[in-house]
Amino acid sequence: MAIKVYGIPTSTCTAHVLLCLHEKGIEYQLVPVDLASAAHKQQPHLPLNPFGQVPAIEDDDISLLESRAINRYLARKHKSNGTDLLQSNSLTESAMVDTWMEVEAHQFNGPISTIIYQTIVNPIYGLPPNDKIINSEMDKLEKVLDVYEERLSKYKFLAGDNYTMADLNHILFLVYFMRTPKAAAITSRPRVNAWWNDISSRPATIKVSEAMKV
Amino acid sequence: MAIKVYGIPTSTCTAHVLLCLHEKGIEYQLVPVDLASAAHKQQPHLPLNPFGQVPAIEDDDISLLESRAINRYLARKHKSNGTDLLQSNSLTESAMVDTWMEVEAHQFNGPISTIIYQTIVNPIYGLPPNDKIINSEMDKLEKVLDVYEERLSKYKFLAGDNYTMADLNHILFLVYFMRTPKAAAITSRPRVNAWWNDISSRPATIKVSEAMKV
User: How does B25-48 read in b/e, with b if 16+ C-beta sit within 10 Å?
Assistant: First the structure.
């Protein structure tokens, strides 16, 4: 039976799981959750995700939440389909994947998600972007991207010379970020820009980002 | 050669790594980084952690940052010392560990770290705690703890019936939280309180938390 993914393709966290499924060539069924009517905060969604969020998945007997955990599970289960996104056969290489996954989660994600919220989500709800917040978060993001520029001068991808989950975890927020007036933070950094051109032109990325129209 | 840990024992993130080292019975050398003089923002620390933070470790030829990634590396390298904190021999059990590690990182950590900052760190710098922020973050934390109470009515630990990295990742922030006036959020929930009494009385937890005096 195909994996069931509960969510919507414009949600970065749902798209994050879809991206891993496409990378691995895994069949799935997307079960829409109507966020507009707050279906994610009610039955029957809450037993799948008690935090009232998307996505959640069901695969055989297992039900999982949190996109980064779901993708680790998918990468482990389908390790031999294509590249091993976790580089699990090597202690040092897997440590590099883990490190840059944590950098994404704890250095990159906070600023970039706030900037996207202010510049793309706020206007949908008729709220003006808050320039003070945007500028403060851009300062943080630029510092993180300076570290990436240095890192990508030594390696083709964040965790080394292979495309891994560390790169994949950055893609969905960057898809939206590149549609904001702040995209020059990426294009002005040669190594970061080359990395983005590479990971955004992967067939799986193109497929999933096409559905991310808000 | 013993692993070198760069940091200070009162930093939750440094203590997080020390806790894993003690759980696994791994010898280490703590190399103090003088945060008061901003040594973490300067040479020679920056090559170890380009984000200017603690901790960082050096082990044989590898240098790592981000405490959650460091601990995954330590747990993988020393898998057979004591319990396997990542439950890596089972696809479904490792998925549960990953899930509750991500829940800690993305649901629990934000509110609890803000509350600790407001109630413990602010007064150190002569700043009053901001009650509005504390109340708003407590609302979020209480909702997360309600999910934990339900989860812990089914399993002894967050990821199942074994103590894992998912539990360990919660400990250091809880050590400080239990010293705040908000500790009743834990003690008033019978299952969460029993879980906390269990994980806080482990010899490794006692050892590391004794050094966390601010």
Answer: eeebebbebebeeebbeeeebeeb
Q: Which two tokens stand for residue A99?
A: 């490190």
Superfamily assignment of B3-77 in CATH?
A: Glutaredoxin (3.40.30.10)
- Count contacts between A and B (CB, < 8 Å): 77
For residue B129, whether the previous peptide bond is cis, meaning omega lies within 30 degrees of 0, is no
Question: What is the sign, positive or negative, of the torsion defined by CA atoms of A94, B54, B168, B81?
Answer: positive
Identical fold at B3-77 and B91-206? no
- Cα distance between residue A193 and residue A188, in whole Å: 7
Query: What is the separation of C-alpha B35 from the centre of its chain, rounded to a whole number of angstroms?
Result: 19
Euclidean distance between the first and the last CA atom of chain A, given in angstroms as a whole number? 31
Q: Do B76 and A94 touch (CB under 8 A)?
A: yes
Question: One digit per residue, pLDDT tens: chain B, 214 residues?
Answer: 899 999 999 999 999 999 999 999 999 999 999 998 999 999 999 999 999 999 999 999 999 999 999 999 999 999 999 889 999 999 999 999 999 999 999 999 999 999 999 999 999 999 999 999 999 999 999 999 999 999 999 999 999 999 999 999 999 999 999 999 999 999 999 999 999 999 999 999 999 999 998 7
Residue A9 is encoded by which pair of tokens?
Answer: 């393709």
Query: Which residues, in sequence order, are bridge partners of residue B31?
Result: B6
- Can you give the pLDDT at residue A180? 95
Separation in Å, CA of A43 to nearest CA in chain B: 15
Q: Which CATH architecture has domain B91-206?
A: Up-down Bundle (1.20)
**Cα–Cα dist B152/B155, whole Å:** 5
> Distances in Å between the alpha carbon of A47 and those of A97, A126, B28, B36?
31, 33, 43, 46
Counting beta carbons within 10 angstroms of the beta carbon of residue A154, is it exposed (0 to 12), middle (13 to 18) or buried (19 or more)? exposed
Q: Which CATH number fits domain A91-208: 1.20.210.10, 3.40.630.30, 1.20.1050.10, 1.10.238.10?
A: 1.20.1050.10
Where are chain A's structural domains?
3-77, 91-208
Instruction: State the ipTM, two decimals.
Output: 0.95
Distances (CA, A) of B110 to A106, A132, B114, B117, B154: 11, 22, 6, 11, 25
Q: Which two tokens stand for residue A194?
A: 């080359």
For chain A, which residues lie within 8 Å of any Cβ of chain B, measuring from their own Cβ?
Answer: 50-51, 61-62, 64-66, 68-69, 72-73, 76-77, 91-92, 94-95, 98-99, 101-103, 105-107, 144, 147, 150-151
